[in-house]
Amino acid sequence: MVSSFFSLFTCMAPAMEERRDAIEEAPVPRAESDRGVSVAVDGGGGSDRGATSEQSYGRVAVIGSGNWGSVAAKLIASNAAKHPMFHDEVRMWVYEETLPNGEKLSHTINQTNENCKYLPGIKLGVNVVADPDLENAVKEANMLVFVTPHQFVEGICKRLVGKIRPGAEAISLIKGMEVKMEGPCMISKLISDMLGINCCVLMGANIANEIAVEKFSEATVGYRQDKEVAQRWARLFGTSYFLVSVVQDVEGVELCGTLKNVVAIAAGLVDGLDMGNNTKAAIMRIGLREMRAFSKLLFSSVRDSTFFESCGVADLITTCLGGRNRRVAEAFARSGGKRSFDELEAELLQGQKLQGVSTAKEVYEVLSNRGWQGLFPLFTTVHEICVGELPPTAIVEYSEHSPNVSIMEGFTQHYY
Ligand SMILES: NC(=O)C1=CN([C@@H]2O[C@H](COP(=O)(O)OP(=O)(O)OC[C@H]3O[C@@H](n4cnc5c(N)ncnc54)[C@H](O)[C@@H]3O)[C@@H](O)[C@H]2O)C=CC1
Ligand SMILES: O=C(CO)COP(=O)(O)O
What we know:
The chain has 416 residues and is α/β, with parallel strands linked by helices. Helix content is 48%, strand content 12%. The strands form two sheets. Strands 3-2-1-4-5-8-9-10 form an eight-stranded mixed beta sheet, sandwiched between helices.
């Protein structure tokens, strides 16, 4: 199954130079990687593996150990164990908690090689070391993988200032954004600015539990300048069942991953109202248009082609069909809006976190600061439903925000 998928994708993609590069570079079987693809990792070290120079090692710390964080650690660990360009050990920072049996989560992960709370039943790889001490987890790493719910990133970065290795590179798997006084700030930029390091992003149609059991999926790495760095990340994550492409569009990739969570809330509301597939497809289409328009208004560099990568339409589809945001929003609509998202999140997700509700709020702040609500009726309505200003049924009504036709005409030409 995996190999037929793989050949299908390699056949379909050759027109796209970047994707072809990534396919050649990323999911490398053992034999190929051992032939020695020369991807240098700056300033590695602290290892005594073989005769290879210390400078050639990528030493990885995964910052986060939730559902996706644990699967990311598993993917990375399988490659780190195989490829000489990476140090074997993968440190995974665990936000420590005490389990019902009184044991610490990090201790249990190290004893059983499983994250019994966020990814039960899946072995992470014996080279994954859970570490509850953030500073210790990152101190030797020169490849930092950020994968926590977005609301915690700023606090984590504050603790990391001055604590990371010079020359370290980062990648963010985090879907979300922050809104500052100066305006919206993507999470990769927050990491870059606070830590003074380059930060790529990896987003895609990546429901973690499916990747955990090695069902085929794709992902997109977005990079700013340095394609070699992006390909090194693709190599770190890519496997035969996880096909990673690289594109030079950090903001486009990150905004796709961020904004689709708002559309997923809308899709869940539609499910909870039993509106059927046509309505849900309409919501996804309108949502995709708003995603693209919002992204291009914020960053004129965002490419249309990015929306056709895994991070774009594919992630939108999978999240609207099978994600946590969709699920909790469905329950919210079934309660007639009487139960809160916070309450339903705690009950249904057992410690996992929704990103869509807070992202809808952050997007709404941007829209209201700039007077754009009328241009983004779906995004606006989702937020107003989440905070109880509108009933769940408003998702298919739009009465409050029927777009102003004359504004829309000009806007449509430019952005839709
Ligand atoms: N789960 C999935 O299928 C996917 C998730 N993502 C994204 O990955 C990011 C991380 O999500 P998951 O790994 O799924 O996490 P999760 O939602 O499964 O788990 C929540 C995590 O937050 C931690 N946490 C709780 N309080 C904290 C605090 N005060 N400070 C720091 N950490 C705290 C918990 O220990 C736990 O590790 C999110 O942005 C999400 O959108 C992206 C693709 C797939
Ligand atoms: O981002 C995801 C899939 O790519 C997961 O979405 P949810 O957080 O809605 O489960």
